[in-house]
Design brief:
This protein has 380 residues and is of the alpha/beta class. The protein folds into three domains: 158 residues, 3-Layer(bba) Sandwich (FAD/NAD(P)-binding domain); 95 residues; 69 residues. It is built from ten helices and 17 strands. Strands 1, 2, 8, 9, 10, 11 and 17 form a seven-stranded mixed sheet that branches. A seven-stranded mixed sheet has the order 6-5-13-14-15-12-16, with helices on both faces. Strands 3-7-4 form a three-stranded antiparallel sheet. Helix 1 runs parallel beside helix 2, helix 1 runs parallel beside helix 5 and helix 6 packs across helix 10. The longest helix has 16 residues. The termini are far apart. The model has no long low-confidence stretch (mean pLDDT 96).
C-alpha cells in the first residue's frame, strides 16, 4: 500500500481548489499529495455562477460576465447596475481543464482516476480503498457528501436548492446579453420558493434555469414543463434549440457537518458544510474556505477546530427555519430585499462581509414578524 501525507477525495471545486492551493504553496512542497476521483473530469457536468468585485482568480476562463442584473417579482421588475461587483459564470469543463493543467506542474501531486469505495479513519492511520487499490494517508480531505447525515436529525431543517437548466439557442437575436436575470419570481410559486434564472451568453444563446428552494424535489417533467412555459409565454420565444441540459440539487442546511471531523480527517466542500446555507451558492464560499484551511494547516492547528459558527450562520438558520415552515414566503422575502435595498448591500451581506450596522440595515428591509417568531422558537 502506497502512503501519502495528504489524500484529497473528490476532484470537484473543493478538491481541485485545495490541491492547487497546496501545490503552489512552498509549505507543502515536500509533502506527497494524492487526489482521487472516479471521473477524469473531461465533461461539462455543471456551471458555477457567483458575484465578485473586480479582477478574480478565474477571469481568464470565464464563460461570461455581466455588469447588470435583473430582479422580477409580483410588484417589481427592475434592472440594477451592480458595480463594483460583476456576476460571473464558469463552465465546469473550463475549470477542470485549468486546474488539472496546473496540477501537472506540481511534482508532489498525483491524480488517480478511481472510485473510492471506503474510508477507514483511526488515530493511527487512514485507509482509503478504491476499486483497485488501498492507500494510506496521514491526513484525509473528504468531499464525498452523504445526504443521510443531515436528514437523520431534526434540530436543523434541510431544504434543497434544486434545479434543471436548459442552454438554448435561437435563430434571431432575442436576448439582452448585457443583463443576467438573477431571480424572476413572477412565475407560479405553488406554495414554494420558485424562480427562474436567465443568463444570456450571447444575443442568441442563454441558460434558462428553473430553481426551487424547498424540501422535496419535483419530477423531471415538472421542471421541463415550467422551463418550456417560461420560454414561450414569458420570453415570447417559439423557435429555439436545446443545446445542453444540466440539473442539480444542493443541500441548504445549518446542520453541523464539522462534527464528523477528526484529528486527521476533514470533510470539505458540500460534505463539510461549505455551501452557503441560505442560498446554495458554493463556488465563492469554497474559495474562501480553502484559503482559511491552508492557513489553518500552516499554523498546525487541530483539524477539529476548523470551521466556527458566527453571526451569519445564525442569520442563515433563521431564514431556513422560516422557509421550512412557510416555503411560500421566499418570494416576498427576496422581493422585499431588492425593493428596499441595493444589490451591492445584498451581495455584501451574502458574502458575509457586512458590519453589524450593515446587518441591521439589511435585515430592516424585511417584514420582522417571521424572523421574530423564528428567533423565539430557537431561543425558547
Amino acid at each position: 500500500m502506497k502512503s501519502f501525507d495528504y489524500i484529497i477525495i473528490g476532484a470537484g471545486a473543493a478538491g481541485l481548489l485545495l490541491a492547487d492551493a497546496m501545490g503552489k504553496d512552498s509549505f507543502f512542497s515536500k509533502k506527497s499529495i494524492l487526489l482521487l476521483d472516479k471521473n477524469a473530469k473531461q465533461n461539462n457536468d455543471r456551471t458555477w455562477c457567483f458575484w465578485e468585485k473586480g479582477q478574480g482568480a478565474f477571469d481568464d476562463i470565464l464563460h461570461k460576465k455581466w455588469n447588470t442584473i435583473r430582479f422580477a417579482g409580483k410588484e417589481i421588475n427592475e434592472k440594477y447596475a451592480i458595480a463594483p461587483y460583476q456576476y460571473k459564470m464558469i463552465k465546469g469543463i473550463d475549470f477542470y481543464a485549468s486546474i488539472l493543467k496546473k496540477l501537472e506542474g506540481y511534482s508532489n501531486i498525483t491524480f488517480i482516476t478511481e472510485e473510492v469505495i471506503s474510508v477507514s479513519n483511526s488515530p493511527e492511520e487512514n485507509l482509503v480503498k478504491t476499486t483497485n487499490k488501498t492507500f494510506i494517508g496521514k491526513t484525509i480531505f473528504n468531499s464525498i457528501f452523504d445526504p443521510q447525515y443531515p436528514l437523520q436529525q431534526k434540530k436543523y431543517p434541510v431544504l434543497q436548492q434544486h434545479f434543471i437548466g436548459w442552454f438554448i439557442k435561437t435563430k434571431q437575436p432575442l436576448f439582452d446579453a448585457k443583463t443576467a436575470t438573477f431571480m424572476d419570481f413572477s412565475i407560479p410559486q405553488k406554495g414554494n420558493t420558485r424562480f427562474m434564472y436567465v443568463l444570456p451568453t450571447t444575443e442568441n444563446e442563454a441558460l434558462i434555469e428553473y430553481t426551487l428552494f424547498s424540501e422535496h424535489l419535483l419530477k423531471e417533467q415538472e421542471y421541463e414543463e415550467a422551463i418550456q412555459a417560461y420560454i414561450t409565454q414569458k420570453l415570447g420565444i417559439d423557435n429555439y434549440e436545446i443545446i445542453e441540459k444540466e440539473r442539480g440539487s444542493i443541500p441548504m442546511t445549518c446542520y453541523s457537518f464539522t462534527q464528523k471531523n477528526t484529528a486527521n480527517l476533514l470533510y470539505i466542500g458540500t460534505a463539510g458544510g461549505w455551501t452557503k446555507a441560505s442560498t446554495g451558492y458554493t463556488f465563492k464560499s469554497t474559495q474562501k474556505k480553502v484559503v482559511q484551511l491552508i492557513q489553518h494547516l500552516k499554523d498546525q492547528k487541530p483539524l477539529q477546530n476548523f470551521g466556527k459558527r458566527d453571526k451569519f450562520w445564525f442569520y442563515d438558520l433563521l431564514l431556513l427555519d422560516i422557509l421550512y415552515r412557510r416555503n411560500d414566503l421566499g418570494q416576498s422575502i427576496f422581493e422585499a430585499l431588492f425593493k428596499n435595498r441595493n444589490p451591492q448591500l445584498i451581495f455584501k451581506f451574502l458574502d458575509e462581509d457586512t458590519t453589524l450596522f450593515e446587518d441591521i440595515k439589511f435585515i430592516s428591509a424585511l417584514s420582522p414578524m417571521p424572523f421574530i417568531k423564528a428567533l423565539f422558537r430557537r431561543l425558547f
